[in-house]
Specification:
Number of strands: 18
Number of helices: 17
Largest sheet: 9 strands, mixed
Oligomer: single chain
Shape: globular
Length: about 600
């Protein structure tokens, strides 16, 4: 069965719309500080408030195809199946249908709509633990749907919850697996095998319990279904492929790279890896810059991750003999041909996306020159002060990687040319330490929309409290924070507003903030019960996400907010507040960018 990416997207949405679901569309890829992560990393992440009990405005049956970005394992990109940007096809029942309907629909979609071989389709289900019995109920529904009994496997890992939380939903899940090829590793090669033949293509989570304080569980009154199926993986399988880069999401880009580089995809291992990295990283960069909350390359937060992606793509482009202008052409293929229907905003921002990519490429050319000079200086010092040492330490090699963007392979190649080796183990240790720190950031170590917790970022975060308060004075009490992104260079603040703010309104907001700063107001922090904070009028968003005890920050008689981020002790330290830009963020939502001088 041959299916294009556009057809698969339509198949998924049509299938569930026919069953009473509303297509709720995709949200921004960029975290706004309320979800605790830098990027949207899962299809269900934006729906967490509704899975926790909040009523969704579109009803109880929902579906979408949601873009996601994960960059913790960026170094894995280059094989057949890793992507930094990917899409999840999701559907949800919020207290509506449950296991019987969902197992039937998942099986029917995979076998009847997509044509998966029911003889090969396998599933794993919850094997039970000390709190909850084995999920035999789901097995009966799977058998009724058409799954073969010998293709159902019990695993204790088939359980979903929010780690470290209480009074939150949890429950068993039902994962769907399909073989990548027909060559088993042995007699017991099945969906539980770790040989790499079996890959998960989708997951149905049944949130039917609640975690209690003692870690036991109790049944939920309203039971939810949360489904996530990998778009790229499904597209690969239904087209009989084992390489995700051979789907139509990438073929036009790879054809262009082949033409301009004179290389052929799939022939040389290193050249093929380079082509995949260029194709993947430029796609993700296009999506992040062209997002409705789009970002640009920088040295902090999400902007730093974007810079790493673009520069890694540029390094491998140079290896293939591609110019930075040709990388812009790759971006245009994604904008105009691959995602022109599903992400129309990319076309509107095409010139801006291409400009930012070219700008970053030009900066990197200079960085590469600096890195080469640093490498030559390193070799010169070794020859002068340690002539018997013919090894570059792991720390030095990692500095070249982290500061100047040199991959280990490039450092090794240059070292070999002058008769040196590189201490790989030392580089690996330094890299692993760096990766652990990166994972902390990706998991939301820095909350409240902050890129980090440095001095300037702390000042900007405190300034958002004042901006929020000033907007309430100028635009009315209904005005509130809808999202923020804060770096050491500026603050970005989204709020509801039905019109472009006038120059008079902006001037008044600016004047109020600076007037408060001149009053040298002290910032105080109090710990209290969440309910008490609400009763005393503390500003908050999504109160159900906060723990039972919260921190309330008060700035004179100007602002009182529940918050998790760092703040200055006295707002006199902020300096002069200046609004740099006011613009539309989305329908009915405006955005202010401001700086402190």
């Amino acid at each position: 069965m041959k299916v294009t990416s556009k057809q698969l997207r339509k198949m998924w949405l049509d299938f569930y719309k026919e069953r009473g679901h509303v297509d709720i569309g995709a949200v921004s890829l960029i975290g706004d500080g309320t979800t605790g992560v830098m990027f949207n990393v899962a299809g269900m992440q934006p729906l967490m408030p509704y899975l926790l009990g909040q009523a969704h405005p579109e009803g109880t049956r929902l579906c979408n195809v949601q873009g996601c970005v994960r960059t913790v394992d960026i170094e894995e990109v280059g094989d057949e199946s890793h992507f930094t940007f990917f899409e999840m096809m999701g559907n949800w029942s919020l207290g509506d249908y449950f296991k019987k309907e969902k197992t039937k629909w998942s099986f029917d979609f995979l076998t009847k709509v997509l044509g998966f071989d029911r003889e090969k389709l396998c599933t794993t289900v919850f094997a039970g633990n000390e709190n909850v019995e084995r999920d035999d109920e789901i097995v009966e529904y799977l058998l009724d749907a058409g799954v073969k009994k010998e293709n159902i496997f019990f695993l204790e890992d088939n359980w979903w919850d929010l780690p470290g939380t209480v009074n939150t939903p949890c429950g068993p899940d039902n994962e769907w697996f399909y073989p990548r090829h027909d060559n088993p590793c042995g007699e017991n090669c099945n969906a539980t095998c770790e040989c790499g033949r079996w890959v998960e293509i989708g997951n149905d989570v049944y949130m039917q319990y609640k975690v209690k304080e003692d870690r036991s569980v109790e049944p939920l009154k309203n039971k939810n279904v949360d489904t996530g199926f990998g778009f790229e993986r499904l597209l690969m399988y239904i087209n009989g492929l084992t390489d995700g880069y051979k789907t139509d999401l990438f073929t036009k880009v790879l054809e262009f790279i082949e033409e301009k580089s004179g290389k052929t995809y799939g022939v040389d291992k290193e050249e093929t890896k380079a082509m995949r990295i260029v194709a993947d990283h430029i796609r993700t960069a296009v999506m992040l810059i062209g997002d409705r909350n789009g970002i640009i390359p920088s040295n902090v937060g999400a902007g730093y991750i974007l810079r790493r992606l673009i520069r890694r793509a540029l390094r491998y482009a140079k290896f293939l003999g591609l110019t930075k202008e040709q990388l812009v052409c790759v971006a245009q293929i994604y904008i105009n041909e691959v995602y022109n229907d599903s992400y129309p905003l990319l076309k509107e921002k095409e010139a801006y996306i291409c400009e930012e990519l070219l700008k970053e490429a030009t900066k990197f050319d200079k960085t590469l020159e600096q890195g080469t000079r640093e490498f030559n200086k390193l070799i010169s010092n070794l020859a002068k002060f340690a002539p018997d040492v013919k090894t570059i330490s792991g720390d030095k090699a990692f500095r070249l990687f982290d500061t100047f963007g040199f991959p280990l392979e490039l450092t090794e190649e240059m070292a070999t040319e002058v008769g040196y080796k590189v201490e790989k183990d030392g580089f690996k240790k330094a890299f692993e330490l760096h990766q652990e720190k990166s994972k902390g950031v990706m998991k939301g170590e820095f909350k409240s929309g902050l890129a980090d917790d440095g001095e300037m970022t702390t000042k900007y975060h405190t300034a958002t409290h004042l901006l929020n308060a000033a907007l309430k004075v100028v635009l009315g009490e209904k005005c509130h924070q809808m999202g923020s992104n804060i770096t050491a260079e500026r603050l970005r603040f989204d709020f509801p507003c039905d019109h472009k703010m006038t120059q008079e309104e902006l001037a008044r907001v600016e004047s109020l903030v600076n007037d408060w700063i001149s009053q040298e107001l002290v910032v105080t922090k109090e710990e209290m019960a969440k309910e008490t904070a609400v009763d005393i009028g503390a500003e908050h968003q999504f109160i159900e996400r906060y723990p039972d005890i919260v921190s309330v920050y008060t700035i004179g008689n100007v602002s009182k907010e529940i918050c998790t981020g760092p703040h200055v002790a006295n707002i006199k330290d902020l300096g002069h507040f200046k609004i740099a830009k006011e613009e539309a963020s989305s329908s009915g939502v405006r955005r202010i960018k401001a700086v402190l001088n």
